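Sample A.
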Amino acid sequence: MAQERLDEGLAKVQQLFEMPENRQADAMSGAFDTLRLGIVAAKKEESILNGRSKEEMMNAMKVCVMIGQKRKMLKGRCNECLKIVLANKSWVKTALTDAAFIEQIKESLDKDTETIALLDVPAPVAGAPVEETAADGPDEDEGVDPPDVGGYEGPDIVGLLKTGMTNMAKFNWEFPHNPLGTMLDDATGAFQSFFEGLTKLTTTSGGASLNKEPAEVLAVFESDWANLLGFCLSMYQSTARRSYRSRVKFVVVKLQELSPSFNDEVGKRTDVPWITIPRSSWSTLPADVTAEAAEPEVEEAPPVEETRAVEEVVEPAAPIVPKPGVVWVDFKRKAYTTSALTKERGITFMGFHDDPKAPDYQPPDKWFSYVIDRVQDPHNVVDVVIVNKVHMDFVRQVRVFCTALAHAHPRFIVVTRAMAKDFSEDLGIEQDSIVKDWGAAAKLAMEEVGIREVRRAAKREA
């Protein structure tokens, strides 16, 4: 019976996506109702979720997300369905093939950190190497600095920037709010293209590939700075793309840093929904001192309402207890796959493989997005980021972003055999944050997490 219910629901969804877009809205609620019966039945018979085509799985999840966006009263039911199907590895693997859709799912799930954590892994890549097992004693690769592979081709960067600007202009520089059809995805893709181009442009290798300074490359877009800013602010206000807010801030902050004319445009607006410290202070990065680590901002609980009837007193909401996170970016995959951090259940641990020749390679914009998306997240914070010496551009990007917006800085730990004195003080990395082996990096990371956890607990009790 459960099998038949799910089959019927998936068939209804398939019929829905075969309809013209102008007819989908009327049929979507009925398709979801039928689909939900089948998915709920899968709670008792999990096996019926197996053997589904990628198209069936993706379309079913899309319907759940779209209904939740359109009909707030049904969001709980939609999230219930997402939670059930994402407990199945095949459905998770399918969702991970579409990065933009992953963000929509996270947006829908909101505070369901347990289910969201299932999606916080790099997308699986065919042919990825088998997971290594930890070896006894030090590894010969520990602390060896990876080669500087040169980064990006100039045309790739310029193409991403131009594609983003051209496609944002197609929406009259206003982010759409219609959850049906492809408009949201297309507009998001346009912004993402510009974001990726800007991230690559502001790396040392990216700028070198163009033989130009970043400001010179961006000058061609100056006539549309006001339009771009308008698009970014309208996207920031979109409830369907809240998970992109940190990336929107990065684009605005980075352009303020690189382009005086863009900074002037920001100064003309009265509707910028965040506050930055004076631009002249961004170049001065604070020292990476553990004792001064800032805490993530959380919403304060509402005050207790005064009333004569004791039973009507509204109790303050329980304080948010964030889950600490550690990010590890390394040229050697086994640096993080064999780390003791993989066994730490009290943290969210994320590794990124920075080897362009590897099948599971993740480019810098992916690491950067992951970190800055959690800078303001009161539920998941990144306390520590472990990197190699070649990742100083990434370090600077994150630190300038956090400084400009007065956010907490993660502690950066560098694994390298280079001398600690080789690192310039303007990056704010203390010498005791530079280590020569993976074990020392993991130990230092957990010490930092522990210190910040104690401080957060004290703040909650104050």
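Sample B.
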Amino acid sequence: ETVLTVLHAGGIFGGGGYKVSGGLHGVGVSVVNALSEWLEVTVFRDKKEYSQRFERGTPATELTSKPIKEARTGTSVSFLPDTSIFTTGIEFDCDTIASRLRELAYLNAGVKITLTDNRLELLNREAPRVETYCYEGGIREYIAYMNNDKQPLHEDIIYTCGERSNVQIEVALQWCTDAYSDTVLGFANNIRTIDGGTHLEGLKTVLTRTLNAIARKRNKLKEGDANLGGENIREGLTAVT
């Protein structure tokens, strides 16, 4: 109840979850609850099923629990946006949701995500739309997906991962010969960092420094030659970090 009704009651404030997870500020689900006509949450834990219903952000029932036979775990959240607030309609764009779920599956190698759209009348079909996303190759498969219609300079996608100062990082890279700009995507805890960040700037810096060093070591750049610019090195590059 606290998580769903009180702002800033998220996991960022303890437990170490923020090391790998995003969206822990305790704002998102509280706001969804407040903007919903109703919201129902069910938690399966310790062979019990816990459930509670909220209406327009306030508890409509007490938290209830009942025993279950199987050792099931997980959380289910169902909600209906409030049409008195969203007066122009509450229709969700399935393609937008699918794009985000696919992205999350690429960023979390081996995690299986299933999207089901049961709006048969809207879809004008007899069966629900069901899509499953699971990529054992993680961001390497993400690079392959983005470069599907391009001509790669090297078939093998460059990949590295590591940890320093309690921070985990992974990077995948591939250059293409038929692209004249770069596509470098940065994420922090599964959240796209569209405004950049030290992880993106660090990647660009190390690429420029390393490739210039290799070029000089192999005499591709002579002693009096200027270094290659970062934008020239990244031409045709697709990268995810």
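B remarks: The mean pLDDT is 91. Residues 110 and 136 are 4 Å apart (CA to CA).
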